[in-house]
Structures are given as structure tokens and as C-alpha cells.
Specification:
Blueprint: E1 16-19, H1 23-33, E2 35-41, E3 48-53, E4 56-61, H2 67-79, E5 85-94, E6 103-111, H3 115-119, H4 131-143, E7 148-155, H5 166-172, E8 177-179, H6 182-192, E9 195-205, E10 210-211, H7 214-232
Parallel strand pairs: 1-4, 1-5, 5-9, 6-7, 7-8
Antiparallel strand pairs: 2-3, 3-4, 5-8, 6-9, 9-10
Bound molecules: adenine.
Adenine binds near residues 91 and 180.
Length: about 230
């Protein structure tokens, strides 16, 4: 079976999928974390792999950037491949009292995108994480003594430009991260009936013009991936 965007055979995608934005990140994660990892998608270079993490079958597939791309993959994974759990593992810009390299669990995702309104008759959807996945991630982080911040994020369509007052609005609402996908992923999950979660590494900060150096970025993403995979184990 294949879809317009995924050329994988039906049984080649696991029912649990990690979804980084960058397809090369998906390849790197598969090499670092999966036993017997096999390439299952190359269509549009949106690389995808399926293998085993401590005996759990899992796929890692790139989502691309932005809600439209992420929502296409999430929808096809759920509808056509029967995927039941999708965890976005990405990066975000920090807002307020959060530091570069911190891990942020997106409890809910506000947005300037119209995507969820298009699906929801023009109303505002409260796009939120699956409680079971969120609880498992929080418990795993506590058991491993890994600091994991739980807060709202903002999924923007505008990496450049957009609302000039955005930072002030985010601070006023205690939102701690800006990225470009979670509100769409959560909206699709609520509609399609699968579990979804976003865990993000703070890679830059909106108030300090700071960016994570490559080594720290690498270590942070590895730490986040290990935490997420451990939290998904039965
Ligand atoms: N992803 C990582 N940093 C970001 C930022 N500052 N804005 C939007 N998406 C991001």
C-alpha cells in the first residue's frame, strides 16, 4: 500500500511513530536508537525507518516543517497505516523562564494557523496532548531525574514576520515555547482518534538571540529521544 506521501508497505510502519521535523534527523535517530532499523519511506525524501527499541517496534519518520506537512503525514499514518501513537520530537524557541537545552512537553498548543478551525467549523479547538502519553513522559522523566518542563506552546505559521506583539502575548499567557507543528498534530490526533504528544528541546530563545551550539543540540536531542522512547515502553 502507499499513499500520496508515503510509499511504505502496509505492515512496514509500526503502530508507534516518532516524528521529528527533519528527515535527516529521522535517519540519525534510527541509526542511534533502533535495532534492525530498515528504511520504509523515501518518497519526497521524507525518510522513514522501522526497527526495535528494547524490543518495542517503532518507526521514526520526518514530518517536514509546518502544520500542513505534519498534518499530512499524521493523517496518512493514522488512516492508512493504523498508527496509534505519534510523538513529535522537535525543537522550539524558548519564551520566558526557560533555558537553551531544556526539555519542554507541550501540554497544549495555541496557534496562528487556521488549520484546526478549517476542521472544526470555524470554532477554536483546544488542541491538547494525550493525557496517557503525557503522564508516561512525566513519570519517566521523574524516574530518570531528567528535568522536563510541562507548559503550553505556540505553533506558528510564520517563522519570519507574523505578529510583532507575539512575544508579549506569549509571555502574558505563560506560553514557554514557539514551534510550527504541535497544534496541527494534536488537532489531527483528536479527530482521527490516535494518541499524540510533542516533546521539544529549546534550541533558541526569543528574548536573547541565543542558539544552541551543535554539540549541545546533538546531546539535547539524544537525551530527549531516549526519554520519549523509554516512556513509550510497555
Ligand atoms: N523552532 C525552533 N525554534 C523556533 C522558533 N524560534 N520559531 C519557530 N519555530 C522554531
Amino acid at each position: 500500500m502507499s499513499t500520496p506521501h508515503l510509499d511504505a508497505a502496509p505492515d512496514m510502519i509500526a503502530d508507534t511513530v516518532l516524528l521529528p521535523g527533519d528527515p535527516l534527523r529521522a535517519r540519525h535517530m534510527a541509526h542511534e536508537f533502533l535495532d534492525d532499523g530498515r528504511e520504509v519511506n523515501t518518497r519526497r525524501n521524507m525518510l522513514g525507518y522501522t526497527g526495535f527499541y528494547r524490543g518495542m517496534r517503532v518507526s521514526v519518520i520526518g514530518s517536514g516543517m509546518g502544520i500542513p506537512s505534519c498534518a499530512i503525514y499524521a493523517t496518512e499514518l493514522a488512516r492508512v497505516f493504523g498508527v496509534r501513537r505519534i510523538v513529535r520530537v522537535g525543537t522550539c524557541g524558548g519564551v520566558g523562564d526557560i533555558e537553551l537545552g531544556d526539555l519542554l512537553l507541550a501540554q497544549a498548543a495555541s496557534t496562528d494557523s487556521n488549520f484546526n478551525r478549517l476542521q472544526f467549523g470555524g470554532h477554536d479547538l483546544a488542541a491538547c496532548a494525550d493525557f496517557g502519553l503525557m503522564r508516561a513522559a512525566v513519570d519517566t522523566a521523574a524516574a530518570q531525574r531528567v528535568a522536563l518542563r510541562v507548559a503550553g506552546v505556540f505553533s506558528t505559521d510564520c517563522f519570519y514576520g507574523g505578529d510583532p506583539q507575539l512575544l508579549a502575548r506569549l509571555l502574558a499567557h505563560r506560553i514557554r515555547g514557539v514551534e510550527m507543528e504541535s497544534a496541527g498534530l494534536y488537532g489531527v490526533a483528536m479527530r482521527e482518534g490516535f494518541q499524540a504528544l510533542s516533546v521539544l528541546t529549546v534550541s533558541d530563545h526569543l528574548e536573547h538571540d541565543a542558539h544552541m551550539p551543535p554539540t549541545q543540540r546533538e546531546q539535547g536531542l539524544a537525551r530527549m529521544t531516549a526519554l520519549v522512547l523509554d516512556s513509550l515502553l510497555p
